[in-house]
Amino acid sequence: GTGLGLPLDGAKVPAATNSSLGGTKAHSLVFEALQNRVNSVNQDVCEAGDENSFFVCDLGELQRLYAHWHAKLPRVHPFYAVKSNPNPKVLESLSSMGVNFDCASKSEIEMVLKMGVNPARIIYANPCKASSFIRFAKNREVQKSTFDNVEELAKIKKHHPESELLLRIATDDSTAKCRLSTKYGCAMENVDQLLARVKEMGLNMVGVSFHIGSGASDFSTFYKAVRDAREVFDRARNSFGFSNVHILDVGGGFHLDTFDESSHTLNLALDEFFPPTDNVTLIAEPGRFFAASPFTLACHVIAKRAHNDKESMLYINDGVYGNMNCILFDHQEPVPKVLYHDQKFHYWEDQPSTSSVKIPHCPLKVSIWGPTCDGLDCVTQEYFFRHDMVVGDWLYFTALGAYTSSAATQFNGFEQAVDVIYINSASEL
Ligand code: PLP
Q: GO molecular-function annotation terms (predicted)?
């Protein structure tokens, strides 16, 4: 039943996430791809798993994201953080646009090199690497890498002495949802000591890197980090005589939602501390900025437990051990949307507006659960829909490409949803 007239008073509805840069036309192409796929599955007769969750990936969105990045941060060259989503078509598409790569491990380096990418376009941005991986990087001529401790320098001296080194400094990431400086980064008071060891060992110091953490609400941390980086540049050049220090790597943590603000603050800091006349090469390691919005995840309702006609539990075939591991590992709150249809399976949008908060009448309260037998496998505790859902219906989640498929497990014997339907809205608009 529609519009039962119950107000949403006091109901907890998750805030809408960013959708995409594509506008309604691109969105309707994604929606069409969802419908076509869903219509092709007859759950009454299909093979086991034919109704598995799947992604629609809009490669046109990647092109728009790159143009947007270039417009807002024209001085900063992106090295895509492969860990956020190593989908081969995404990597190829970014590579063809001229985006470079941040790799965290041997297999990420291998994946990127297999596409024919020049190793000079890779930064091995992991400050704590296994010795064998350092040798691997040397063999594959991957020169650029980050470090933040003396032990790492000793391994690099032994296994890859020509390596081009960026010193990673700690940042104030206290407002970030995903904090990284608790694990990595040299504190400013220890920088001199570390630079002295680089000098002693005769290693090739080329720059400074940092990461402000992800999901930051206060971007003044960018300003402080860039200011600190300037300090390290000056000490390296003036106190230690490193003449080849020329790269500043501003890391990741960029979200499409907050990109106007973060890029603005970053530009102010860069113009103050690293003006164009300095000829410093500026790079970044964005992951989620590129990986999130091109992907929409669709999931099938496999079971339902109705408590009464207003409250029920829905069980879907993807969850916290699958693509929605981002709930636990990345502090994301995926926002479910319903693929509503009539008797003849004509589909319509759940919500005309992107903000679920604006839905006036959502009387049906649901909790949504993943398919494993673990009680932790909960996608959302409390959500409100306008219409009732039944087994066989589909839900979808927009902007769910970052830190989802890249960390999915096969726990309970469920396959990872690797099925991806590709569209390119940029070529069709
Ligand atoms: N660079 C490094 C060293 C990281 O650890 C990460 C994320 O963990 C990234 C880049 C990408 O961050 P984001 O996806 O938030 O842009």
A: ornithine decarboxylase activity
Is the CB of residue 78 less than 8 Å from the CB of residue 310? no
The answer, yes or no, to whether residue 158 has pLDDT greater than 70, is yes
Q: Which atom of ligand 1 is nearest to the CA of 289?
A: 16
* Region for 392 from its dihedrals, namely left if φ exceeds 0, alpha if ψ lies in -120 to 50, beta otherwise: left
Is the CB of 152 within 6 Å of ligand 1?
no
pLDDT of residue 360: 57
Active-site residue, selected from the candidate residues 57, 186, 373, 378 = 373
Of all atoms in ligand 1, which is nearest to the CA of residue 168?
3
pTM over 0.90: yes
**DSSP class per residue in 359-426:** -S---EEEEEE-SSS-TT-EEEEEEEESS---TT-EEEESS--TTSGGG---GGGPPP---EEEE-HH
Matching residue, tokens 């000079």: 120
| 373 is annotated as an active-site residue | yes
Residue-range domains of the chain with CATH? 23-58+294-428 (2.40.37.10), 86-286 (3.20.20.10)
How far apart CA 162 and CA 44 sit, in angstroms, is 62
Ligand 1: which residue has its CA nearest to atom 15? 253
